[in-house]
Fold this protein.
Amino acid sequence: MRAFPNLTIVDHPLVQHKLTLMRRREKSTKEFRHLLKEISLLLGYEVMRDLPLQMVPIETPLEPMMAPLLAGKKLCFVSVLRAGDGLLDGLLDLVPSARVGHIGLYRDPVTKRPVEYFTKLPEDVQDRLVIAVDPMLATGHSAAAAVRVIKKAGAAQIRFLSLLSAPEGVQVMLEEHGDVPVFTAALDRELDEHAYIRPGLGDAGDRLFGTK
């Protein structure tokens, strides 16, 4: 499997275990949704591993001390609709004070290219570390389009988090946004003729919302 300089694969045993459970076709919508939230918590630890800290004075029940807190502006999570919301829930459990943005994209069935239909981002997104989330990094066109929207809004610190990635999608992100690190639980084999990740887990949005 090819190595990509922009890609971090989160290979923690719990991540890999839960991903295997999610891949199984017999998993119900309820079970899939629950597992996606659980795995997003684990992925979130990795994508936010190097957040800056500052030392602040506090009082414990026994004595004063200097203790670490997150430094700077709160994070911004941007969900690529609609399936991105499945990762968003878990990340907000980790950082409840984070700002949230949404970018609506759908894939044209003929061209396989993304079409933007909705964007709502915090006004001060340029001052925040932005983590864009979408469970499937397949062709990479939607991910690249979402990052273009975020950059156009002024954000300079951007990371992209997915559950599954295909080599084709990671390559597109490398070519179009080489400055954006990509985090994922697995790099699968390839895309098929319908631009689905193989072996994959099917359509994450349909499985998350029970629409198919």
